[in-house]
Structures are given as structure tokens and as C-alpha cells.
Amino acid sequence: MNAKEKLFCENLAVSQDAVKAALLSGFTDQPEKTAAKLLEKPAIRRRCKRLIKNSTDTLDAICGLYRIAFSNPTSAVCSLFSEDVTDLKNADLFSVSEIKRGTNGAVEIKFFDKIRALQTLAQLSPTENESKIKGFYEAIMLGAKSVSENRSEEE
Fold this sequence. Notes:
The chain is mostly helical and 155 residues long. Helix content is 71%, strand content 7%. It has a two-stranded antiparallel sheet.
């Protein structure tokens, strides 16, 4: 697999659009046909599937960390002590790691560590340079789209 094909796989994982990925990867001549031909190659399909799965898994993990870091424990606690069972069914208990009821009837609720979730999010967040690179990359994508649209209008 050459560099342009690898870039196509990465662009496809981000954009979820094969034609757009082909354009962004430099396949400007008949991007629809090129995208279809590229996706016929087993190695490219495997790489694209792996990259898409990895980006989805990472996004799910980041969303979970945000829920833990910014959750409000009040609703979980109130729901657990409510007499109405429907309150518990509707409660957001995502940030609860453990619930115990002692022999004396006492309830112990443990929550996931919010500080650790915030620290992990900080480690996963892009650095300032990565943000600049992403902005530059997005500008290139918009420029490529504009050039493609202008060529389509001229034809």
C-alpha cells in the first residue's frame, strides 16, 4: 500500500465519505471511481475498518470520561434514596462505581474518580501544536473541496 492509499484510509476514517477521502488524499481525477477501486482492495478495506473502529472506540472512551468528570452526583444520590422506583430507572448512574447496603441498612455509594477522569482527558486532549495542525489540515480539506467544485462547474 502506497502513501496516498494510506492517507485515503485515514481520511475515510475521519470523514466517513469515500469520495471526500479520495479527494483529500490527492485522487482528484474521477474520485468516485477511484474510491470504488480503492475499496475493492482487501488490504485497504482492512486498514479502513481498523482505523474506523479505533477512532470509534477512542471517541466512546472520551465520551465516557466526560460523563464521569462532569456528572452531578446529586441526581444519583436522590434517586437511590427515593421511595419511587421509577426515579431509579430514570437516574443517571453512569458515574457510580459501587453501591453497598450494610447490615444496619446504611447505604454506601462510591463514585468514579472525577479528578482522574479529568487528568486522563487532559492527556488525551490535543496539544496546541496538534490543534494548529488540525486547523491547517481542515483548511487544506476546504481548499481541495473548493478546487473540486470549481472543476466540476467548469466541465
